[in-house]
């Protein structure tokens, strides 16, 4: 499964609540029209004691995740009129964005009754060991590794490029936000940027 993951920072003149509402209600409906889209999840970054200083310094407000069966479907979506409409709309609320193309690998199957809250770990090194580190956290109920294949500016977008290079991405789930924060708050992981996110699955 191919996962196109974006790192998004909102425009400075757009309040956080307005950013989230536009992303969900307006932009989300545009993305849902992509042909070949198997799954679409918006991960909204939350202010939490489990977000570490490395993550705060990046000022990322959200991670859209678009899943496709293969690169052919992904390229078809990226070259579509629907993507062109998204690029126009993006200028209204996104200040900077970076696109990371990955292969998704389920390491620990997620619990069927899991919460909407998860942890996204970005490795800022070539191999930050993010998966093995997350696997050891108490209360883990699901874990996916996203192997980075390519990254750079969003295709055909006029939104400024967010210059962040990541060596790996992993996503972990817990039964509740409390369980997540208890597992992570005292964890020292300077090579990782740790984001607590609330998931909204649109497709």
Give structural attributes.
8-stranded antiparallel β-barrel, single chain, alpha+beta, 6 helices, 37% strand, 203 residues
Describe the model:
It is a single chain. Helices cover 27% and strands 37% of the residues. By secondary structure, it is α+β, with helices and mostly antiparallel strands. The protein has one domain (2-201): Alpha-Beta Plaits (2-Layer Sandwich). It has an eight-stranded antiparallel β-barrel with strand order 1-3-2-8-5-7-6-4. Helix 1 (16-31) packs antiparallel against helix 4. The longest helix has 16 residues, at 16-31. The protein starts with a strand and ends with a strand.
Mean pLDDT comes to: 92
CATH architecture heading: 2-Layer Sandwich
Query: Beta-strand percentage?
Result: 35-45%
Pattern of helices and strands: EHEHEHHEEHEEHE
User: Can you identify the CATH class?
Assistant: Alpha Beta
Give the tally of structural domains. Answer: 1
For the biggest β-sheet, the strand order reads: 1-3-2-8-5-7-6-4
Structure summary, number of beta strands: 8
> Roughly how many Å apart are the termini?
15 Å
Percentage of residues assigned to helices: 25-40%
Task: Give a brief rundown of this model.
This protein has 6 helices and 8 strands; from the N terminus they run βαβαβααββαββαβ. The protein has 203 residues and is of the alpha+beta class. It has one domain (2-201): Alpha-Beta Plaits.
């Amino acid at each position: 499964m191919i996962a196109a993951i974006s790192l998004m920072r909102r425009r400075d003149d757009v309040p956080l609540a307005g950013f989230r509402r536009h992303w969900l209600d307006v932009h989300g409906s545009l993305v849902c029209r992509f042909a070949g889209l198997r799954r679409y999840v918006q991960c909204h970054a939350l202010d939490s004691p489990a977000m570490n200083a490395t993550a705060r310094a990046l000022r990322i407000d959200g991670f859209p995740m678009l899943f496709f069966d293969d690169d052919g479907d992904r390229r078809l979506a990226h070259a579509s009129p629907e993507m062109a409409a998204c690029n126009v709309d993006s200028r209204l609320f996104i200040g900077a964005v970076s696109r990371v193309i990955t292969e998704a690998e389920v390491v620990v199957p997620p619990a069927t009754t899991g919460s909407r809250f998860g942890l996204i770990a970005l490795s800022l090194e070539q191999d930050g060991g993010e998966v093995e580190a997350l696997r050891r956290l108490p209360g883990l109920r699901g874990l996916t590794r996203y192997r980075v294949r390519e990254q750079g500016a969003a295709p055909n977008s006029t939104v400024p490029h967010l210059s962040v290079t990541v060596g790996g991405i992993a996503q972990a789930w817990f039964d509740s936000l409390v369980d997540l924060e208890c597992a992570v708050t005292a964890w020292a992981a300077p090579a990782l940027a740790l984001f607590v996110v609330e998931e909204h699955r649109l497709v």
